Structure formats: structure tokens, C-alpha cells
């Protein structure tokens, strides 16, 4: 009985700690957004972070999007050929890329490539007590360091969406038109058959939000990591996993609400 009570107590303690860290995470996000209007304080760091994030994600995005579009076109084209609707492959490729693949791929790359670097950078600053030094000088480290990273990840996430869609459409074009013999006109005509303007707006919104979520998780875990190199390495691993889970959860909620509010075109 004592072991059961101890296990229950430990479970409640872990639950309280998880809720506390979740609250601190959202507080970090809100605090980072609160001073966004003071652009003069963080625009230089914002430009540097935009360049860094774009540099580490641009080529991986192309390498991921091309085979993704090709894979979708290959499977859908094979099925549609059996029912005599090969021209529908362009619609399936474009619909999948715009609605789900593009924002998720952008967010996961930002979380894995740029987010891990942000966590390591913040953790190194914590170990060197740079964050404490900023507070001693009367500078809020969240405003100076987190705010530009939030907006940089959000802006680059939105920009990467267009690159992913173009690369995915190119990969789908190769397999559907070059390999499977569908005409170019049928492929591109079907590409816009099922899409609506709101699909693109929601995709851009999700890409910006997911980038901001990835940057928030990375910065928060870096700023609160355990002291020492081991603590930084552990924070990097946790940041990537936590950001991925949070992004997929938010994506499910947004997609569900969107499909209810805006029924798909048939």
C-alpha cells in the first residue's frame, strides 16, 4: 500500500511539474511577443537569425519536398490510372502539399535544424551566465534574444512553404508526366481543381505559427536547462521532441476546425 501511495504521489508531482513547465513555456511566448513593437531593439538579431535559419533549412527542404511530391504522384497516379482518372494526380499532389505537407515539413525542419541550434545557443549563454548578466544590466533576455528568434522562425517558416510546394510539384510532375505519360496540361489543370484560396491562407498561418512554436520551445528549454554540457545536450533532445509533438497536436486542432468551418470542394 505504501508503494502505491508513493507511486501516486510521484505521478501527481510529475503532473504538477509538467503543468508548471507548460505555463512557463506559454509565459515565455507571451513575454516574447509583448515587446514586439520595439523593433529597433531586435531587428539586427532578427536579420541574423533569418539568414541562419534559411541557410540551414533551404537545401534540406528541397531534398525532402522533391521525393515527397514524387512519392505522392507515384502512388496516386498508379491508383488513378486503374480507374481512368490520371489527370486527378495533380489535384492530389497539390492538395496534399498545400494543406499538410508544406507547413509540417517547414516546421519540422526549423525545429530539428534551427531549433536545436537555438537551444544549444541559449544553453551555452546560460552556462556562461550571460542571461544573468543581461538581467543585471537591466535588459530583459526574453525581449533581446527570444523575440527576434520567434519572428525569424515564423517569417522563414512562411517563406519555406512556397519552396516546398514548388519542389513537391516538380517532383510530382516528373513521375506523373514524364514517367507515367500524363499530359502537362492535365497535370497543371487538375492541380487547382480542389484547392481554395483559404487553403493557402491557412497553410501560411500554420507555417508561421509552427515556426514560432518551435522557436519558443527551443529558447525556453535552452534558457532553463541544467548547468553543464550534459544539461545542454539533454535540452536539445527534449526541445526537438517536444516541439514536434506540440506542432502535430496544434496541426490536428487547426485542420479539424478548418474542415468543419470550410468544407472541402468536391
Automatic annotation (TrEMBL):
Key words of the record: Membrane, Transmembrane, Transmembrane helix
Stretch forming the signal peptide: none
One Pfam family named in its UniProt record: MlaE
Membrane-spanning intervals of the chain: 50-74, 101-120, 150-175, 200-223, 235-261
PANTHER family, per the entry: ABC TRANSPORTER PERMEASE PROTEIN-RELATED, PROTEIN TRIGALACTOSYLDIACYLGLYCEROL 1, CHLOROPLASTIC
Name the UniProt record assigns to this protein: ABC transporter permease
Organism placement in taxonomy: Bacteria, Bacillati, Actinomycetota, Actinomycetes, Streptosporangiales
Amino acid at each position: 500500500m505504501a508503494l502505491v501511495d508513493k507511486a501516486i504521489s510521484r505521478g501527481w508531482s510529475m503532473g504538477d511539474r509538467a503543468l508548471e513547465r507548460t505555463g512557463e513555456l506559454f509565459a515565455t511566448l507571451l513575454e516574447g511577443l509583448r515587446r514586439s513593437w520595439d523593433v529597433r531593439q531586435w531587428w539586427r538579431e532578427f536579420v541574423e537569425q533569418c539568414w541562419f535559419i534559411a541557410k540551414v533549412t533551404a537545401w534540406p527542404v528541397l531534398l525532402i519536398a522533391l521525393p515527397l511530391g514524387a512519392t505522392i504522384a507515384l502512388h496516386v497516379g498508379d491508383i488513378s490510372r486503374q480507374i481512368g482518372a490520371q489527370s486527378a494526380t495533380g489535384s492530389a499532389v497539390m492538395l496534399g502539399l498545400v494543406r499538410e505537407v508544406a507547413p509540417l515539413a517547414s516546421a519540422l525542419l526549423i525545429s530539428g535544424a534551427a531549433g536545436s541550434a537555438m537551444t544549444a545557443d541559449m544553453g551555452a549563454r546560460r552556462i556562461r551566465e550571460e542571461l544573468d548578466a543581461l538581467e543585471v544590466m537591466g535588459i530583459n533576455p526574453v525581449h533581446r534574444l527570444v523575440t527576434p528568434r520567434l519572428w525569424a522562425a515564423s517569417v522563414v517558416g512562411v517563406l519555406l512553404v512556397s519552396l516546398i510546394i514548388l519542389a513537391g510539384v516538380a517532383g510530382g510532375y516528373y513521375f506523373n508526366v514524364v514517367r507515367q505519360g500524363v499530359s502537362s496540361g492535365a497535370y497543371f489543370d487538375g492541380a487547382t481543381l480542389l484547392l481554395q484560396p483559404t487553403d493557402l491562407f491557412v497553410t501560411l498561418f500554420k507555417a508561421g505559427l509552427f515556426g514560432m512554436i518551435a522557436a519558443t520551445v527551443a529558447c525556453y528549454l535552452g534558457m532553463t536547462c541544467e548547468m553543464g554540457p550534459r544539461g545542454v545536450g539533454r535540452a536539445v533532445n527534449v526541445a526537438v521532441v517536444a516541439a514536434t509533438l506540440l506542432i502535430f497536436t496544434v496541426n490536428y486542432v487547426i485542420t479539424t476546425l478548418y474542415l468543419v468551418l470550410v468544407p472541402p470542394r468536391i
